């Protein structure tokens, strides 16, 4: 029958619904597919790394989605569309500039412009990053209510990346309150020893947080973070406008 959905159609519908829903019942309702069908498809996605299960009936996008997203983002127009804005930020700040996009409970680097100094940071396009210990991640988290942040941390944990990483919820929530007041997030060697960064959130045409922009440098560069923070806020606003945000 012409109107009958193929197995590929059903799989793609479940994968797309997974971006907005985490429970089988909600995905079934959103796709119009029977729960057993949704569950079977999700199990297949889990086996192939396109979904992850918490073992309690909740599903999120898996690492293969992040990897594919990182590779495709190098070829899509998003990073190229805003590259002049990122280049301007890099030239004004002298620091390494990143654009990362939110993907599930993580973010993925979509663009990187090296700073003016003769060193290279470990970040690369396509690499995923934690939200609790990066300026990009904390800028994103600061757009969420505390209850939503707590729920995310319950799923991801707060592993220490360095001795400076915030590893308890209350300390992070206090930091996020400061991010909201200041307008940008700071990373003081919390993700990578010897590296500090500032980041500001980016929003799409619906007003939803889409990712964040950051500027990062080695700590020996004794430059005021506040000046870089203002530059990053301005760049993030321009990127958001380029994505259709008001």
Automatic annotation (TrEMBL):
Q: What is this protein called?
A: DNA-binding IclR family transcriptional regulator
Top-rank taxon of the source lineage equals Bacteria
Instruction: Please give the Pfam families that the UniProt record associates with this protein.
Output: HTH_IclR, IclR_C
Keywords, sorted A to Z: DNA-binding, Transcription, Transcription regulation
Start and end residues of each IclR-ED domain = 64-245
To which species is this protein native?
A: Actinophytocola algeriensis
Stretches assigned to the HTH iclR-type domain: 5-63
Which GO molecular-function terms appear in the entry?
Answer: DNA binding; DNA-binding transcription factor activity
For this protein, the record's PANTHER family field holds: HELIX-TURN-HELIX TRANSCRIPTIONAL REGULATOR, ICLR FAMILY, HTH-TYPE TRANSCRIPTIONAL REGULATOR RV1719
